[in-house]
Write a structure and sequence with these properties.
The protein is mainly beta. Helix content is 0%, strand content 54%. The protein has 2 domains: 2-105, Immunoglobulin-like; 109-208, Immunoglobulin-like (Sandwich). The protein is built from no helices and 19 strands. A 5-stranded antiparallel sheet has the order 5-4-3-8-9, with no helix packed on it. The two termini are 40 Å apart.
């Protein structure tokens, strides 16, 4: 995983137990079905075969056998393969391959509850609330409303509207909630954006009514 516009680190997982000299190895990284991302040709970095979008964006850390991909973008998501060949009696022989999948993460804004309310609240009337969060990636899983009063908390999961920016590929999400105005009791309403098992959740500032 890498944050948007940060450096992504892709590991070759090459133990080099034989302590082979880099000058006897050809190392290249490919993306998907064959775009060449980086190539080290018997100790020298070689740029002839690189896909144009990776030129001047990659560095290889030979001590850790890790490729650094600078300024990682959403278009860089996907599967990468590291292939190492050893110069053996003149003809190169593949001695190691490994694969890794790059996922890009962009932080969503803190969810914010909008309350287009004017005038005083009357009990048993309806409240129309909306909750929004923007500028994130990947697509979130769910937006949940938490309505707490006294010792009970009610969870509601209405429909979530998702839009994706055509250029940046970042997502904006909104959820709407209609509830009756609570009577004679303080009610806190929060909105929770669930991003996925490994990314966790973001929660809004609670609205007290």
């Amino acid at each position: 995983k890498s944050f948007l516009n940060h450096t992504a680190y892709l590991s070759c997982y090459f133990p080099n137990s034989q302590k082979t000299d880099i000058k006897d190895l050809r190392i290249f990284w490919q993306k998907g079905d064959g775009e060449v991302v980086h190539e080290v040709y018997y100790g020298q970095e070689k740029h002839d075969n690189l896909s144009p979008k990776y030129i001047n964006r990659t560095k290889m850390d030979m001590d850790k056998w890790t490729l650094q991909l600078l300024n990682a973008g959403i278009v860089d998501e996907g599967q990468y393969t590291c292939i190492i060949q050893h110069r053996d009696k003149g003809s190169p022989k593949v001695i190691h391959t490994s694969e890794c999948i790059l996922h890009i993460i962009a932080n969503y804004s803190q969810p914010e509850i909008a309350w287009p309310h004017t005038g005083e609240l009357k009990s048993n009337k309806y409240l129309n609330l909306s909750c929004s969060s923007s500028g994130g990636y990947p697509e979130p899983k769910q937006m949940t409303w938490l309505i707490s009063h006294e010792n009970t908390t009610q969870r509601l999961v209405p429909h979530m509207d998702i839009s994706q920016d055509a250029v940046t590929k970042l997502y904006n999400v909104t959820s709407k909630l209609n509830i009756t105005v609570p009577t004679n009791t303080l009610t806190n309403i929060s909105c929770l954006l669930f991003l996925g098992e490994q990314l966790g959740s973001l929660v809004s500032v609670p609205l007290g009514i």
